[in-house]
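DOMAIN: structural biology
WANTED: fold as tokens
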Amino acid sequence: MGSEHPGGARPPETPLIEFRGVTRTFGEGERAVTAVDDVSLRVHRGEVLGVIGFSGAGKSTLIRLVNGLEKPTSGSVHVLGQEISALPERRLTKVRSRIGMVFQQFNLFGSRDVAGNVAYPLRIAGWNRRRRGHRVGELLEFVGLTDKADQYPEQLSGGQKQRVGIARALAAEPDILLADESTSALDPATTAEVLALLRRANEELGITIVAITHEMEVIRAIADRVAVMDRGRIVETGSVHDLFSNPYSGEEPGFVASALKGRPTPEDVERIRKGTSGRLVTVSLKDSVAVGSVLGRADRLGASFEIVHGGMSTTKDSSYGLVTLAVGGPAEAAERLIAELAAASPVQEVD
């Protein structure tokens, strides 16, 4: 029997979520505000996409377009193979049942105990009592709250409330999990616990996650890819490691690069310049061996260097680093060293 596709090639997998030229504008005329501006973006099955940007960048509107709570002014949003922006309410409800949502402020029912909160979407979906009870037990074990089943939200810590929220979001076995600033209300230690739980949901349950956040730590901990939003537009996309390990994006330093601990702030630069007259360059350690080899030749090139700023950090499955060097020596020698560094790894001169 012959192959269904020429040469045995398989067609590309349909994205689980796809934005096609989507714009969402609120208001009219001079008072119109464009929250999402001509966004085209794909999210594939099984991945974790982090959407990051400052407050007001359009992140929350973007996520509301996925579950149909907002409709695009123009363009289209496709979820699970359907144009969600064109579905009637009855069919939209079916698609929403395959999308779980984790909120910043937990949104638990104060009048229901933990088990009741987790069971609520199952009751709405028509699961019988026995099946609901079994599923709630599974989920409370998954999030580590089996002993809290009979307690009420007011008796729980913030981290425990968010774990209940995650269990509830996973209750109806969704394909997609939307996390909207899910750790913003938590302390660092609790944030790490919640992020580890979201990572397990992705890796063990195969759930596709879109995480909306303004926190770099969330992106580093769980995301496979990142989309950077600024004033409604997607201005940077790529693997987390590639964006974080490159100190330069486009004509101006991007949001990711500007927020990295390894890149000096304007205040850092002012302080550094008081102690050195060398040219300042920020170098990615994406290929640390190549960078080290170039720096080892600095003397032979007639140049000198001093590490004046930098740091290492980790992403979900790799590490990256940026260092800022003060390059000294004769102008021609310094230029040669910087050129060789640029050939080995991304480099940005610090103004």
Confidence is low (pLDDT under 50) at residues 1-6.
